[in-house]
Amino acid sequence: MKRDIKTLGDLKKSGYKSKTIKDELRDNLIKKIQLKEPVFIGIVGFEDTVIPEVERAILSRHNINLLGLRGQAKTRIARQMTEFLDEYMPIIEGSELNDDPLNPISSFGKEMIAMHGDSTPIAWMHRSERYVEKLATPDVSIADLIGDVDPIKAANLKLSYSDERVIHYGIIPRSNRCIFVINELPDLQARIQVSLFNILQEGDIQIRGFKLRLQLDIQFVFTANPEDYTNRGSIVTPLKDRIGSQILTHYPKSIEVSKLITSQEAKINKAQKDTVEVGDLVATLIERIAFEARESEYVDSKSGVSARLTISAYENLVSTAERRMLMNGETKTHARISDLSGVVSAVNGKIELVYEGEQEGAGIVALSLLSKAIRNQFVELFPDPGKLKKKKEVSPYQSIVEWFSAGNEIDLLLLDTDANYKKILKAVPGLDNLVENFIPKLKPDNKLTMMEFVLFGLAEHSLIGKNSLVKGIQFKDLFGSMFSNSNMFDEEL
User: Fold this and answer.
1) Residue 38 in contact with residue 51, Cβ under 8 Å?
2) pTM for the model
């Protein structure tokens, strides 16, 4: 076992050969591909786009810039690159620069070998320790990244400022033989970005005019948001030129992929999973909110709509249903369409509004996105009321609409028990049959949710009325609802 090797002499006898981190990443990636092992685990939706680009960059031994809007798994990709490193790496024990015992670069490493020879003590570094991450902020200095003279060290050791041992190394030299990630690269001041030129091109650094040139061995991964190029700063052209591969990330291209990501990332504990069931319909509507937001004229498209929106919204949805269940003294429940009112707080903080959106208010915009999600999902499951009207075809919704037009109405309260919820929906004639005709063989709870969804869909298509109540929602005749200006899920802005 490699970790049984404790000295430089033993390391040499073992036949260990040094390799650069880029070669290490490349060799281990090749093994994974040849063995047909999964390369990036939990990165969904990038199988045919981003992941092949990252693999090509690693095989090319390139430093990488992941360019994309927020919430596109850029940092997760970078963190998973540690899986392409050897499990353990030997270093000279006590070296702050992770010196390779066969090729030390620091004065400490060289002195240790000169002093102890083959008896130089060796330590082993796990690949999980070989990942270093730094968030770029305008206050980051060259000393933070590269290093500077440490006057306290000089005084304590009684050394001249010209002695290399007085240097306090920054985070980049301390990341030698590691993966080093700089998040939000454009936020670094231009003069700080310039300090990275030599490291990327020549692999070395210079500190305060010292003659030493440390030949660092680092895999750089940068992340950047295109919005930053205009709003907060930019990546200077010579730096971009030195980054081997720039890879564009993206949001999920389909609802199904987005649902996979949300179900994978949402923090739902076992107790919640056992007591709250979320049907496919409600889960789909959660994802549609994000898709609608990315197309909305009230949301800043340059800022993007993070995948964290649907994750947080899903968590809020489950909690809304769970709270209702607990307050009603029930042991199990099923997420309803009306429970989606509980996701507004999650949506509010995840979208960046343009001026017109700010004028309307975040809450109104969030409800409008939910309305659009319901309206567009409705016509994928049931006949489009607008097209039926144009073709003058008999409407399958006629009996439902006529029942409300006759003056009937129902109140769906947010805290209704499951029994009362079922009783109210079953009271609407034609509703059960409509769902059975178009979407047969649904489980009983899912069928009730679909029946509720039909009411919301008909309201969004202006066939019946919908008014908000203090504790829920009311469905009634369209004409009667016109006297009320507020809806639980507002009309389209």
Assistant:
1) no
2) 0.84
